[in-house]
Amino acid sequence: MNNEEKIPLFSSNGYGDVDQGNDNSSSESSGSFRVPFYGTVTSSQFGIPLRPIPVEERITYSWNSINVFADTATAESRNFCLCCCSNGEYENLQKKHLVKNVNGVARPGELLAILGSSGAGKTTLLNALTFRSSKNISVTGTRCVNGNPVHSTALTSISAYVQQADMFIGTLTVREHLTFQALVRMDRHLKYDQRIARVEEVISEMSLNKCENTCIGVPGRLKGLSGGEQKRLSFASEMLTNPSLMFCDEPTSGLDSFMALNVVQILKQMAHTGKTVICTIHQPSSELYAMFDKLLLMAEGRIAFLGTPEEADIFFRELDAPCPKNYNPADYFIQLLAIVPDNEESCRHAVNMICDKYERSLTGMEVTLESSTKVGDFLKNTETELWLNGTSNGRKSPYKASWCAQFRAVLWRSWLSILKEPLLVRVRLLQTILVSLILGSIYYGQVVNQDGVMNINGVLFIFLTNLTFQNVFAVINVFSAELPLFLREHKNGMYRTDVYFLGKTIAEIPFFVFLPLVFISICYFLIGLNSEMPRFFVACGIVVLVANAATSFGYLISCLSSSVSMALSIGPPLIMPFLLFGGFFLNIDSIPIYFEWLSYFSWFKYGNEALLINQWQNMTDIQCDENSRNCPRNGHVVLEMYNFKEDDFFLDIYAMVGLILFFRLAAFFVLLRRTYKDQ
Ligand SMILES: Nc1ncnc2c1ncn2[C@@H]1O[C@H](COP(=O)(O)OP(=O)(O)OP(=O)(O)O)[C@@H](O)[C@H]1O
């Protein structure tokens, strides 16, 4: 091919060369394929050719008698039906049959596209094939890899699933994101250098070199990758382990026609390397349609056809419903199989007739036979079994990386995402300095007399309030905002819940030590608190403990909330009782007996007592007016006014350490429960 023949649409975008189409059959064997209007695309269209799948690792994925039911009954309707419905009505109310007795086979080297009108059951089927159905869904039937029945954990470790919605930590760059993925997804025996080499390779394979150091982007806040680049990054993440089986849900949704073509070309190219690729596609253009090796047409949860586009053409011709000339076959089939409102009865009749015909057709029967083929009929069944055992069935754990490797990677990413928000770090520091200066100047130079006692006790309680609100609200969004990403990555077998929780919380510890220290260092001497240096250091320790108890409580609220707005709404009312039991607004001895248990969880109470003991313990002489009766003459009297006991100082310290651990553990178990609930 000479330069004049190059199609600028592709070559000008850095995707390499596109051959003008010659003979289709010869190009197939040489690793290239025809794209209508664009000619034949060779593997050089991508940065570098994709890594081929070794023959012994290629996968024929089959599914037999797949039925999917949804439990649609609400608690109210169930209760109503228990008293007033017949048995049949109750069954119908409980279960909706979404996918009906579906069989199918996808072979290595094939790009199989699942098509159908909206609501036909494409996503439901794909979720059933990938063991990712939602909670109210039950699936029956077998799913086999080379004839071996496969389970969720084994399938997760040998396949990849590119979901419709891309989810990333938007502040990371493409390279950082892929490095993290390589650290937790690739085999535990690989060295760091080998992982990084694979990252480089995948960046080139997916033509991401141009944007490798670009931030991925946060919608509405940080401009980053284009939609097409984000989709290629999703593919790149899945390609790191070079899986033999790929599932993609609506990979072209939200992309323009050029980007959609680009994405399907990637899928096609993956299939060329020996992968088995199964995807759902919504309304493909005729260019995309021509690139599918196999079609699976769905209607009303049934299969209307499974075979090559040419076979589909013949099948519908034989049904006396041929696709008109110059018509996009995908549009035609989707319209033919759609249930049109106001004409539902006859549409359903036509759909059922087509599905029945397909089941009785030679193609349909062949698929049914092949999908029910079990171990023994496959040449390499023993190898497959060994390979499946080696990948995960034998180990039971879905995780590729060891606990330590997962922890290191999650900690690194969490730390990186904090550093990537320098503005936030600066604002938090500035806020701390500003509040400390304001308090320092308002309460400047307190004298130890009757008024001074009141002011000092007041400002010490303000320390606690400020540290609490500042720190609770600094972390309240940590888990609630990242929950969908965490659940997806956790389900993908990337890291454990405890690793994620520890990694996230440990990465933030430096801030919750450093900022309280900055705060107290500025205002302590400005206010004129107890001037003995050891007392200053003890006060530093107490504020760090208070800040961390509040932080732990913030994590608990964050894990309890399903969204940031919910966390922000429930945060203040939950803090209020703990604040009231702090001993400043309500004397400790006046707490109602039925609330006493709650006061044991109040870090305000322990922090206030510890700070006051530290401040007043050694004060033997407080200046009092001769006539004043209520003036405390020394520190012991001040503490007695609040019913605080000097002997309780260490108890307060231990209680705060205990609360830090208790709230964190509670937060972790809430997060753990969410991961189980979501499965
Ligand atoms: N968890 C569920 N509970 C109850 N019904 C469900 C559930 N998931 C899907 N359905 C129903 O199953 C049918 C098929 O839904 P599905 O999402 O698979 O369709 P689809 O072909 O992927 O459509 P689209 O192209 O619009 O995404 C729909 O009628 C939908 O309402």
Could you please describe the fold and organization of this structure?
The chain is of the alpha/beta class and 679 residues long. The chain folds into three domains: 3-45, no CATH class; 55-72 and 94-393, P-loop containing nucleotide triphosphate hydrolases (Rossmann fold); 403-677, no CATH class. 54% of the residues lie in helices and 11% in strands. The chain contains 27 helices and 13 strands. It has helices spanning 8-11, 24-29, 75-84, 87-94, 122-129, 152-158, 174-185, 192-205, 227-239, 257-272, 286-289, 309-318, 329-336, 344-360, 362-371, 381-393, 403-419, 422-442, 450-475, 478-491, 497-527, 533-560, 564-580, 596-599, 603-616, 635-641, 649-677, and strands at residues 18-19, 32-35, 39-42, 61-71, 95-106, 111-116, 137-145, 148-149, 159-162, 245-249, 276-280, 294-299, 302-307. A six-stranded mixed sheet has the order 9-10-11-6-12-13, with helices on both faces. Strands 5-4-7-8 form a four-stranded antiparallel sheet, with helices on both faces. The protein has a three-stranded antiparallel sheet with strand order 1-3-2. Helix 19 runs antiparallel to helix 25 (603-616). The chain is elongated. Residues 1-46 have low confidence and may be disordered. Adenosine-5'-triphosphate (ATP) binds next to strand 5 and helix 5.
